[in-house]
Amino acid sequence: MTNLGTYELLNLAQRAGAQAAEHIRQSRYGKDLEIQTKSSPTDMVTKVDKETETIIKEILLGARPRDGFLGEESDEVTSTEITWVVDPIDGTTNFVYGFPVFAVSIAARDSSGTTLAGLVIDVYHDDHFYATLEGGSFLNNRSISVSNTISLSQALVSTGFSYDRATRVAQANTLTHLIGEVRDIRRAGAASLDLCYLAAARIDGYYEIGLWPWDYEAGTLIVREAGGVVASLDSDQPRQELTLAGNPAIFKELRELLLASGLTI
Ligand code: IPD
Ligand code: CA
Ligand code: CA
After folding, report:
1. Residue 87 CA to ligand 2 centre (angstroms)
2. pTM over the 0.85 mark
3. Complete DSSP assignment for 193-245
4. d(Cα 214, Cα 86) in Å, to the nearest integer?
5. CB under 8 Å to 27, separation ≥6 — which residues?
6. Which CATH superfamily is domain 3-143 in?
7. pLDDT tier at 233 (50, 70, 90 boundaries)?
8. Atom of ligand 1 nearest to the CA of 191
9. pLDDT for the residue 40
10. CA-to-CA distance for 144 and 37, rounded, in angstroms?
């Protein structure tokens, strides 16, 4: 696809994302959210998650009816053309509590699986992080790059925890191997924003087990276009088993430390 084509995809994502973010802002935080649970008693979904995904899906597929759609809250639409990968609210727990770290995440991938455009909107702050393939990464029209921290001992590293009790206990165990080796740890609560914070040098590294494509697809392009690395332990692509990311200088050290901690996937 031409650069013009990827910008058109980004523009459409911006249109859908802006309306989605406005809908989330208009919703009353913490009230009448019709909270239900999904994979575990701590895994919440609200009516705002579902409404927001519907808004995004209608705008994207309304403009491009032949495209596919992979969203967290609705049935997949398959396509041989562009597929939109969408998390309507990444950070639902934060949204429910009014903890101001939650996002709309929209990515467009082609039929070979290459991500062409990615947008993550920090809804509370109305910060728009975005990238197009080979077009660089931006935060509100300003070009962004990953940090230049060169040592893991000086690195601020973010992570997250699964909704599954046994998995999060194992994740906490892995963390005990890291906490003494890094500057500090953050758990912001929205994977897409963890990746964008890495792209904007607000942190130096990030890893998480158990993410889905809608959590990491847009953020991965934004990190890579900002000069960072996103991969897994045994592959150069993030996977559900592990999303591992960092600036290029600390990425290898972080990977080795995770391997030394006994993490396997
Ligand atoms: C969650 C957030 C969280 C991460 C979880 C995700 P959701 O997404 O990204 O930071 O730790 O693994 O499931 O459920 O709020 O869309
Ligand atoms: Ca998510
Ligand atoms: Ca979500």
Report:
1. 6
2. yes
3. HHHHHHHTTS-SEEEESS--HHHHHHHHHHHHHTT-EEE-SSSSS--SS-EEE
4. 5
5. 33, 48
6. Fructose-1,6-Bisphosphatase, subunit A, domain 1 (3.30.540.10)
7. confident
8. 9
9. 86
10. 37
The per-residue pLDDT for 76 is 95
| Atom of ligand 1 lying closest to residue 215 CA | 9
Distance CA 205, CA 194 (A): 9
Q: Side chain identity at 137, as an amino acid letter?
A: S
Range 71-78 average pLDDT: 95
Backbone phi, psi, residue 204, to 5°: -110, -25
118 lines ligand 1 (CB under 6 A): no
CA of 190 to the centre of ligand 2 (A): 7
CA–centroid distance, residue 90 to ligand 2 (Å):
4
CA contacts within 13 A on the Cβ side of 252? 4
H helical segments located in 64-200: 92-97, 165-178, 191-199
Using a 6 Å cutoff on CB, does residue 91 contact ligand 1? yes
State whether residue 109 is helix, strand or coil: strand
37 contacts: CB under 8 Å, gap ≥ 6 = 43, 44, 45
Domain positions in the chain are 3-143, 152-260
Ligand 3 centre from 73 Cα, in Å? 8
Split at pLDDT 50, 70, 90, the class of 4 is low
Banded model confidence at residue 265, pLDDT cuts 50, 70, 90:
low
Q: Is the pLDDT of residue 87 over 70?
A: yes
Residue percentage of the chain with pLDDT more than 90: 83
Chain mean position to CA 147: 18
The CATH topology of domain 152-260 is D-Maltodextrin-Binding Protein; domain 2 (3.40.190)
